[in-house]
Hints:
By secondary structure, this protein is α/β, with parallel strands linked by helices. Helix content is 31%, strand content 21%.
Amino acid sequence: EKIDPERFIGNYSSGKMGFALAEECARRGAKVTLVSGPVALSCSPAIRRIDVESCEQMHQQAVSLFGNCDAAILCAAVADFKPEQVADSKIKRGNDELALRLSPTHDIAKALGKMKNERQILVGFALETDNEETNAKGKLERKNLDFIVLNSTRNKGTTFQSDDNQITIIDKHNMRPFGKKSKKEVAKDIIDELYARMAANE
């Protein structure tokens, strides 16, 4: 989320998990649209890629695309807050402190959860630092998700910047923990779960 033309508020996400999921879906024959934030990754030509730079842009794309989708996987580490004011030119160093006032961004998962029909599958992610299972279950309910993928910053060598991840898949009735794996292998576990639910809906 931009502060001025040169600076932004961001996080440490590499995008690797989202790209692995897109590639796994495409490998199984799905028609995939990947809405990506600014990351240094490439994807196969079979995937339709839409690049965005802000939550506002990602929200617009997600809402416009979801109606024609069988499923959506919400894996991006979207900013929860943005600066209320974005400077038109670079903010120069001064002698005084610089205060940034932040306002909430769009809740994309909640918006799609309200749009979702009975045949669509909506998958969310919860990256947590504490009270992991409680927070993930709350997000699952509030946002009308079919299942949520929980990962934790407590698991060293996973999540941000890593090639590995360690997840638990949670729905309204069950929790399925998985061991630490490469993000490509984790993507297979998640898409197995997605495909099983899509088959049950047919």
